[in-house]
Design goal:
444 residues; alpha/beta; Rossmann fold; 3 domains; 49% helix; binds NADPH dihydro-nicotinamide-adenine-dinucleotide phosphate; binds 2-oxoglutaric acid; Glu_Leu_Phe_Val_DH; Glu_DH; oxidoreductase; Glu/Leu/Phe/Val_DH_AS; nucleotide-binding
């Protein structure tokens, strides 16, 4: 048994019943195996991989709040501060009933390497709660956010840990969280990103993850001598990432045929109408069943099904493990040329292997969706210098960051004899910088 296998076994033994965390660690360790073998003595002596897989700090706390009927409710809150070797902890907050410590740890672990790939000085962290904002009044969401921040504030700060949004946490939630932090700390600082434009937010942060995904996909296809323009795409999700991925795809000449939420999915043969989607999801917080009212030619189906629609490009933008082996087989049978991940870990390990074995260009999440956190880091820069950049400035920087990521992961894959394996390239390139910083900083 080699070093990486030993480390994986220890992680599973020390963190029982956390399948998503195990999956993320396994995917990472398998792909950096050649680097670990080349440096085995050094890594073993410094327990480098063992330290990398152990969060620097993890916090779980009670979040009590009162609902509109006067009933007290209790949720669990989490923040996992995974690795600060290259900068303050940075990563989103997820509010969804499925949240548990294993989910937050997988997300925090991925965030370490994603943030490294951006080239910006940000460490990895993630947090959230099993609170479900769906169906709650604005007052209930505010009560929850205030209670959540009443504990979280003591662990975060502009130079310590800077949370942002993720599933279930958008502009409304960030506003309530920021207001409570400022009130408790009496400090107006860039402690959160994804803020509103009137109180320190950055232009283009709302669009950044989706736009970045498309800049990444465009460049990845380009280095494979394929022009993105004129292609068709299937997208899953109908939230922040999906909406702006669809918008940028259309600007680049791609026809997007589908989107989905947790109850069903839409097929629109004329291309998804982004304005309709924004009104349904961002303004009305409604279900996709509404879409047909805007587009009578479209179809709505209950359940899941977007991967069965034939298209050139697949962009999973909803949640983890939403694209399984059967879906991968369908995509290959349909002649899909590329899968680029907007969501975090949306493709199962078996599906990823199948896609790679069948020549599908695979853009892994930690590279493909890094545009969101990269733009968050640009928001931190603007907050530090107390200036705001124009949309065009931020968007141009975002585009260049995504182009750089494509070339860096391509070179890293080639350097270790894994030409075209961009998942390996992303893990290796992201890891190398963190590894150097950890070794330089001693045993901490
Ligand atoms: N926001 C960001 O900047 C970034 C987000 N990501 C990742 O992108 C993904 C989407 O995030 P984001 O768009 O921000 O989140 P949103 O909450 O805005 O949207 C999430 C979308 O995915 C659907 N969804 C969520 N959970 C499930 C589920 N269990 N099964 C089926 N559908 C589901 C939601 O449907 P419904 O409304 O019905 O729940 C909704 O359409 C996540 O994996 C997130 O971690 C990655 C990088 C940055
Ligand atoms: O903007 C951020 O800090 C984090 C975005 C995020 O949650 C992610 O990259 O998964």
């Amino acid at each position: 048994m080699g070093y990486v296998d030993e480390v994986y076994e220890k992680v599973v033994a020390k963190n029982p019943a956390q399948p998503e965390f195990h999956q993320a660690v396994k995917e990472f360790l398998e792909t950096i195996r050649p680097v670990a073998e080349r440096n085995e003595e050094l890594y073993r002596k410094n327990a480098l991989l063992e330290r990398l897989c152990e969060p620097e700090r993890q916090i779980r706390f009670r979040v009590p709040w009162v609902d509109d009927n006067g009933q007290v409710q209790v949720n669990a809150g989490y923040r996992v501060q995974f690795n600060s070797a290259i900068g303050p902890y940075k990563g989103g907050l997820r509010f969804h009933p499925s949240v548990n410590i294993g989910i937050i740890k997988f997300l925090g672990f991925e965030q370490i390497f994603k943030n490294s790939l951006t080239g910006l000085p940000i460490g990895g962290g993630k947090g959230g709660s099993d609170f479900d904002p769906k169906g709650k009044s604005d007052r209930e969401v505010m009560a929850f956010c205030q209670s959540f921040m009443t504990e979280l504030y003591r662990h975060i700060g502009a130079d310590t840990d800077v949370p942002a949004g993720d599933i279930g946490v958008g502009g409304r939630e960030i506003g309530f969280l920021f207001g409570q932090y400022k009130r408790i700390r009496d400090s107006y600082e860039g402690v959160l990103t994804g803020k509103g434009l009137s109180y320190g937010g950055s232009l283009a942060r709302t669009e950044a993850t989706g736009y970045g995904l498309l800049y990444f996909t465009q460049e990845l296809l380009k280095i494979n001598n394929i022009d993105i323009s004129g292609k068709t795409a299937v997208v899953s999700g109908a939230g922040n990432v999906a909406i702006y991925a669809i918008q940028k795809a259309q600007q680049l000449g791609v026809k997007v045929l589908t989107c989905s939420d947790s109850t069903g999915w839409v097929y629109d043969p004329d291309g998804i109408d982004v304005a309709a989607l924004q009104e349904i999801k961002e303004v009305n917080r409604a279900r996709l069943t509404e879409y047909k009212k805007y587009r009578p030619n479209s179809e709505y189906h209950e359940g899941r099904g977007v991967w069965a629609v034939k298209a050139d490009i697949a962009l999973p933008c909803a949640t983890q493990n939403e694209l399984n082996l059967e879906d991968a087989k369908t995509l290959v049978a349909n002649g899909t040329i590329a899968v680029c991940e907007g969501a975090n870990m949306p493709t199962t390990l078996e599906a990823t292997d199948y896609l790679k074995q069948h020549g599908v260009i695979f853009g892994p999440a930690k590279a493909a969706n890094a545009g969101g956190v990269a733009t968050s880091a640009l928001e931190m820069s603007q907050n530090s210098e107390r200036l705001s950049w124009t949309f065009e400035e931020v968007d141009a920087k975002l585009k260049q960051i995504m182009i750089n990521i494509v070339h860096n992961i391509d070179s890293a894959a080639k350097e270790y004899g894994k030409d075209g394996d961009y998942a390996a390239g992303a893990n290796i390139a992201g890891f190398k910088k963190v590894e150097q910083a950890m070794l330089a900083q001693g045993i901490v």
